[in-house]
Amino acid sequence: MTTVAPSPHARDLSDAPDWWRQAVVYQVYPRSFADTNGDGLGDIPGITSRVAYLAELGVDAVWLSPFYPSALADGGYDVADYRDVDPRLGTLADMDELIAQLHAHGIRVVVDIVPNHTSDKHAWFQEALAAGRGSAARERYIFREGTGPDGSEPPTDWVSVFGGSAWERVSDGQWYFHNFDVSQPDLNWANPEVRADFLTTLRFWSDRGVDGFRVDVAHMLTKDLSEPLPSRAELDAMPIDGNHPLIDRDDVQEVYAEWRAVFDEYDPPRTAVAEAWVHPSRVPLYASAASLGQSFNFDLLEADFDAGQFRRIVADNLALAAESGSSTTWVLSNHDVVRHATRYGLPDAERGADGRPTLKHGNEWLLSGGRTPALDAERGERRARAAALFLLGLPGSAYLYQGEELGLHEVADIPDAERQDPTFFRSPGVDLGRDGCRVPLPWTASDTAFGFGTGGAHLSQPEWFARYAVDAEDGVPGSTLELYRRALALRHELQTAEELAWTDGSSDDVVGFERPGGWVVVTNFGAEPVALPAGEVLVSSRLLEGDELPAETTVWLRRA
Ligand code: GLC
Ligand code: CA
User: Fold this and answer.
1) Whether residues 531 and 435 fall in one domain
2) Per-residue pLDDT for 205 more than 80?
3) Do both 138 and 51 map to the same domain?
4) 163 and 39 in one domain?
5) Could you tell me if 395 and 328 are in contact, meaning their C-beta atoms sit under 8 angstroms apart?
6) pLDDT in tens, 514-528
7) Within a domain: residue 369?
8) Do 243 and 171 share a structural domain?
9) Measured in whole angstroms, how far is the alpha carbon of residue 403 from the centre of its chain?
């Protein structure tokens, strides 16, 4: 049993089953957070060594991206064993220690669960390969015969999310289905053994003290693969209305009803948040208390820094939350997208054929090695700070991605030889992938690997990281780090009911709202200053001068 001294920042974790509703959740990407043994890979003891930093930042919970044994073909989202720790990242004892330390500092722990697919290194998949066609072991995955005279053509022309065919042939001639990388075979969720095993995993981590789960691609688990299988064109033409063969099927909710029963075995009940890329009208299904309880909304990841878009997104998602009874979630960055300080310094998001902004925003800039279109880094940071302070004032929970509290930018010029993301390899030349937001954090401006570790970093950090190092911003008035610290501390004081009333904007570029207790949040999205609303200034994303709210700035006020 680990004993830990109480922390000066500790908050009481004993009560409040609803802790998650308005929590600030900080996403740690373990391989890129802090390295304690000098092998260039971040590790669990590295996170433990930085718990004081997280407590001082003021976050309520930490979400750990996968740390399980993995070939790291997809940054750990290819899990070889759901109930262990990758030996390169540490041990189960290290995890116990991390959980104990976080709890001692009043911080909850959320772990990532990846149920759609395993790694091809998982014992089950190895068994399936060895056992051959028709075996029970193959029934845990999705194996089919090929087409063409000798079965050498894939069962369908479907493409994987990461590019290329969604089918891979094994040595005896059968094919298996993989929505993502070839190293990520999809599980067969119609198989009771698969379902039971995940319940065991949920209990395994809940018993170790984990408070909640982030559920990877929660909308893809169940499938209807009855013959004849549709072609890619037919598949693409099908409505995604609960009956689509692959995406967001109604019957996935049966899985989550079973999970809910497990979560509710614990006190307080374990929580979950769905990573579900579904039509907004379907979000309440995942977010309801009978299902996972909360779902990400990724609308702000896709939006421009634009008053009209932000206002609409907030209104829509508060309405959806009211429908499900859950709280909503706000996200500007995560490990899958170009960092928002960079997105906001580029021309507005590219639009897809349907007029919606595309998630690949910034890819063109990445492909040019960061040369075109020109990045206005300063403007990007200014807007990023304003957007973050806007988001932190909203009702619901806020998910932060490691490094955004430093104002960190995307890294564009990673040498091809260092790239790791399967999207880079599977879409040759079309998509540069997600390595640029996964470069190890800068802790100090002048040490080896900027204090990440003594043995370098698994993705090279550029020179300019020095400017964003924790020790370069710590205690510096006006730094992004100090802004986040101040905002999180204030949020704790001010946070009350999940309500908001819009206040009249003085122009179309201004969005303002008031929370119960006279907490007013106003953002000027425009390029011209506007009059500062009345009230006592609590914090602002940019230095205020006189009675003006500058361009691209958010202010929190207490109404007089
Ligand atoms: C999710 C993860 C992403 C991963 C994919 C496949 O979208 O966020 O990083 O590549 O699932 O597991
Ligand atoms: Ca290490």
Assistant:
1) no
2) yes
3) no
4) no
5) yes
6) 999 999 999 999 999
7) yes
8) no
9) 13
Is residue 378 annotated as part of the catalytic site, yes or no?
A: no
Kindly report the protein residue whose alpha carbon is nearest to atom 2 of ligand 1. Answer: 216
Q: In terms of C-beta density within 10 A (0-12 exposed, 13-18 middle, 19 or more buried), how is residue 504 classed?
A: exposed
| Residue 257 maps to a domain | yes
Going by CA atoms, what residue is nearest to atom 9 of ligand 1? 336
Is residue 127 annotated as a catalytic residue, yes or no? no
In this structure, the residues whose C-beta lies within 6 A of any atom of ligand 1 are: 74, 77, 114, 180, 216-217, 275, 335-336
Q: What is the number of structural domains in the chain?
A: 3
- Separation of alpha carbons 371 and 426, rounded Å: 24
Residue 54 and residue 141 in one domain: no
How far is the C-alpha of 98 from the C-alpha of 145, rounded, in Å?
Answer: 46
Given 265, 413, 508, 536, the catalytic residue: 265
Nearest to 460 by CA among 469, 468, 472, 448: 448
Residue 414 is part of a domain; what is its CATH number? Answer: 3.20.20.80
Q: Report the pLDDT averaged over residues 116-138.
A: 98
Taken as a whole, the chain contains a residue count of 560
CATH code assigned at 511: 2.60.40.1180
| Residue 130 maps to a domain | yes
- Are 482 and 505 within one domain? no
Query: Which among 256, 212, 203 is positioned nearest to 23, based on CA atoms?
Result: 212
For residue 357, cis peptide bond before it (omega within 30 degrees of 0): no
What range defines the domain where residue 30 resides?
19-115+192-488
Between the CA of 38 and the centroid of ligand 2 the distance, in Å, is 6
Query: Is residue 5 pLDDT above 60, yes or no?
Result: no
Indicate whether 112 pLDDT > 70. Answer: yes
The DSSP result for 328-371, as a single string, is: -EEES--TTS--HHHHTTSSSPPB-TTSPBPTTTTHHHHHTTS-
In terms of Cβ atoms closer than 10 Å to its own Cβ (0-12, 13-18, 19+), residue 17 is exposed
